[in-house]
Amino acid sequence: MAKVYVSSTIADLEAERQAVIDWLVAAQHQVVHSYRPSSETVRGSCLDDVDTCDLYVLILGHRYGFQPADDNPEGLSITHLEFRRAGQSGKRRVALVRTSIPDERLSDMDDPQKWARVRAFRAEVAGAVRAAEFGDLRGLVQGLSTGVQAELEKIQAELAQRAAAPVGGGRAVRLAPRPPFLGGREDLLAELDALLAGGEAAGPRVVALHGLAGTGKTSVAVTCAHNHLAEGGIMWHFAAEDPAVLAAGFTELATALGVREGAGDPVVAVHGALAGSSGWLLVFDNAPGPEAVEGFVPPVGNGRVLITSRSALWPRGQGLEVPVLDLEAAADFLAARTGDTDRQAAAGLAEAVGGLPLALEQAAAYAQATGTSLATYLALFHKRRADLLARGQPARYGGTVAATWALAFAELEQTAPGAAWLLRLLAFCAPEAIPLRLLLQARPGLTEQIPAEVAPVLLALLDDELAVGDAVAALRRYSLVRPAGDGLVLVHRLVQAITRAQLSAEAAGQWEKAAAALVDAAVPADARQAAAWPIYAVLLPHARAVLDLTSPGMSRIAQYLGYSGSYRAARDLFQLIAGAYGESDTYGPEHRGTLGARNELARWTGAVGGNAAGARDQLAALLPIIERVEGPEHPHTLNTRGRLARWTGEAGDAAGARDQLAALLPIIERVEGPEHPPTLWVRGNLARWTGEAGDAAGARDQAAALLPIMERVLGPEHRDTLTARHSLARWTGEAGDAAGARDQAAALLPINERVLGPEHPHTLTDRDQLASWTGEAGDAAGARDQFAALLPVRERIQGPGHPETRATRDSLAYWTEQASRDRATEVD
After folding, report:
1. Angstrom distance (rounded) from CA 588 to CA 592
2. Which residues contact 202 (CB under 8 A, 6 or more apart)?
3. End-to-end CA, the chain
4. pLDDT at residue 709 greater than cutoff 90
């Protein structure tokens, strides 16, 4: 870490000054900038700070700056004085000179005397140092990345050389230069220091930094070593990828330590020297795995060992994963590295590359080399991602993302072909947790759905946990996958992109079809079963990634969204599904799949809230088509009639809904049977709309007669049974028994919370009902408190303007007033 003094005028160079400071902070250097405008007293402290810095950076514009009156015979500005002081002190100096004048009002061009001083100062700077010129912030950062970075590297080399100088023998230092940028790694470095410092076990403290190629493992290790450089001792950086090169590194260290005598083993000699020393730190860089460094890591001694490796398979307590950067830190890096102030583009690009440091550095290098803005790069990246990942010259990395990973993929093909096949499958899933155990199950009819070209290798993995485990272990040796829970793995989005890009169009199509077949087969059959919702949730992103909108699995996914309470998402997805069916040459507007999707679209359109009339009108338009295509008594036709009746009632015509259902009931009883679930659904809705039409006692009696049948046929916790219990509670209260309704609602609520979840819309409706009947039964304060607890949940889940949220707000106001009146009555 170098101490850098930043010198400039303030009024005209505020943005440039901040850009330089941000760049230096991102590069992990200590920034000093004591200057304040128009201050006599600050001159002394500024010049003192210049004396203590390692590097002086001048940003020179078109304004001369404040000129102290005392002890300043030449009338120089503070900035000019700082520049001269740095030269007198022998400090390294870098000058960044602005050629454009963004705002002439902030320059001294209108003041002949000051303008002459500006020109004289610029001439003096040009004669003393090789100044880098810039016209805007991006050009300024280009100057930082060349001139300033070169000087910082020289300073780092000098610090390392001083640290390596003998102070009593046994000193040796060989480290790569400190990385210029390592933003967003502060917590990781702190954790690494704690691991290297802790532990009571005898012998060196060993930490293996592992992660995907391009996450910056070496940068973290080298930065950690530089942070401890001032402590002295032996610090040595080994290339550990090749055993022969690693052995040669020990020969060099033994020579540097002066401990190699005769033809003895240099590894043994170094181990012996380290056994009697303390405070040493060795870096084994890019080790293939634990076995590659097993004979080289010192067995004894009071020191520290840092290993970097793509392999995640390290002994417990040694491994520390180097993750990708979080998106905010990644965007900060791009802004500081390029000088591009388009924060939205930086954030978008950070997300597009998944926070991978190598890809970020590569993008920044390409943008600087070509003069491309981050926004332009991002737009091009979306179109030609694979091509861009092969371009750009990232500093301090072995190669581009594409080149680095192509080598890993080639090695994988040779050593573990099954893992390479598995990676191709995973490449077509979404970049979220992938449920391997769920996908790789043999299911009836699945074999016929998998393309013949990939079936032999893929089917070998089905229901063979050992084969899958071997493949995952091989992928983890390159950190190409990460565990994300029991049976779940994560693959970085760029690993997926490059894996796909390496396939021919024909092969990519085959693997995409295979992924779609596995996902479609894994989607559970009944979206109404709450127990299956976690499976739907983990499959959802992968279904959206690979399934065709007209696939059966996609319709089940859409139904899951609706049944689990995401009504709007269900509506939007069925809108897409219905459109895909209707516009397809294979299906068309009157295909059964199209009609079914339109039916579901109407259902969830109404469920979103406030659009019951829209659902009714959609179903009214759909019914005659279904009657003509399917027949008047086909189950699909009867289902549509039932839904039309329901949304007729929801739209305000309760009597019309009652009459439609009453006409439908004898038909569906004859066609489906008196205890078939669709028949029971019609009976339940008939009870509801009988009550809504004004006959609460009749609705109560119908619900009471229906409930035991539903409990027997469907089960006591089926969602339709729970709906029937809710209906019975409601109409019991409406018929005059508020206390009975309250007790029924109180018994139902915990079941709904357990079966559907505490924030499901049906659960919220039950909470609303319980609060209402609590108040009607005489406990206004209790109703008030229950509505007060319910309102913020509705506002968060359904939105403040949703009709049910507004109704809850009105109920809270009503019961608050009633509770106040009751309280006043008690006082009187």
Report:
1. 9
2. 300
3. 77
4. yes
Helices (H), 108-165: 112-128, 137-143, 149-164
What distance in Å separates the CA atoms of residue 319 and residue 301, rounded to the nearest whole number? 20
Pick from 283, 275, 239: nearest CA to 259? 275
How confident is the model at residue 481, as a pLDDT?
93
Instruction: List CB contacts of 778: < 8 A, sequence separation 6 or more.
Output: 738
Compute the distance between CA of residue 347 and CA of residue 378 in angstroms, rounded to an integer: 10
pLDDT at 394 over 80: no
State the Cα–Cα distance between residues 363 and 345, nearest whole angstrom: 12
536 DSSP 8-state letter? H
Q: Are strands 234-239 and 172-174 parallel, antiparallel or unpaired?
A: parallel
DSSP per residue, 84-99? HHHHHTT-EEEEEEE-
pLDDT, residue 105, reads 82
- Beta strands at 488-490 and 434-435: parallel, antiparallel or unpaired: antiparallel
Separation of alpha carbons 306 and 763, rounded Å = 53
Lowest-confidence pick of 232-246, 591-605, 686-700: 232-246
**pLDDT value of residue 265:** 87
**CB environment 533-556: b (16+ within 10 A), e (fewer):** bebbebbbebbebbbebbbebbbb
Q: Where are the beta strands (DSSP E) in 488-572?
A: 488-490
Structure tokens at 8: 């400039």
Report whether pLDDT(34) > 70: no
CA torsion 814-819-821-827 (nearest 10°) is: -170
**Structure-block tokens of residue 530:** 């709450």
Q: Identify each DSSP E strand in 439-593 by its residue range.
A: 482-483, 488-490
CA 404 to chain CA mean position, Å:
23
> CA torsion, points 542, 543, 548, 551, in degrees to nearest 10?
150
CA 100 and chain centroid, separation: 40
142 contact partners, CB below 8 Å, separation of at least 6: 132, 134, 339, 368
Mean pLDDT of the chain: 89
Write b or e for each residue in 159-194: b if 16 or more Cβ atoms lie within 10 A of its Cβ, otherwise e.
bbeebbeeeeebbbbbbbbbbbbbbbbeebeeebee
Q: Please spell the DSSP secondary structure of 758-823, one letter per residue.
A: TTSHHHHHHHHHHHHHHHHTT-HHHHHHHHHHHHHHHHHHH-TTSHHHHHHHHHHHHHHHHHHHHH
Rounded to whole angstroms, the Cα distance separating 800 from 238 reads 61
